[in-house]
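Student: I would love a firmer grasp of how sequence relates to backbone shape in proteins. Thank you; the sequence and its tokens follow:
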Amino acid sequence: MAKIRTVTLCADDYGLSYGVSAGILEALRAGRLSAVSVLTNGPRWPAMGTELLRGGFDADIGLHFNLTLGGPLSVMPLFAPNGRFPEISEVVRGAMRKKLPLKEIRAEIDRQIDRFEAVMGRPPDFVDGHQHVQALPGIREALFDALAERKLEGKCWLRDSGDAPHRIFWRGGPVKKALIVRGLSSGFRRMARRRGFVVNDGFAGYSDFNPGQDYARQFAGFLSAPGRRHLIMCHPGHVDEDLRAQDPVTVTREQELAFLLSPRFAEMLESRRFILGRLSVAAGQCNTTAEKSIAAR
């Protein structure tokens, strides 16, 4: 009989809008997620963070560090002179050319962590990045330093957004996107582990957010070629006007949520002998029981 494997399924963008947050809460209540990554720089965070805290969910709650959506929590005259974050393409160019204002970025990292802690009453279980900014050169070092100053080595896991090429090709889907992020993330895993941080081993969830595609079929690919600490990102939620005003990814959020709440999701995990689990537990960061089968739900 095939071995039962644990996978961490993380919903990104909690706090982006009320609709997105409400959808993620539905999935949490149904036991269909084992991690949630939250945006703290927007106006929705304090209220939605309180809802998340009130739920007492068996899931890792982490910071979705953000430098490309909305604006900073304080002035960043060099990075966001007009009070709005730049596009991801501009951030990538600055990182590759070593021209990012890293002092400003480090200060914004601290502000976003502080805002997380102000609501949740504790540090994040993990940190990742909106559009994978946490892995970019320069930004990654600023993040490691900020977390080390808070003595979070071994207590906070980090998302490695890259994966091995053979796994990426095996899964199919938007291979080019996954390979680009892998390239931009080069060295992140090695540096994070050297600094004392736990990272995932195996990463999937890349999508072109095409409403015409079958998300269930895509998700089956995400489960292929798993790593030892396999992490899958997803973007479920409900569409509202707040979301439409901020982000082009809309309809597919509803589709992802519908699949996660469906019997088909549970059946897929059961047939492939996967259960959901918290990466913090797999990494020995907390004592809560991590693994929970959803097949019986």
Notes: The radius of gyration is 18 Å.
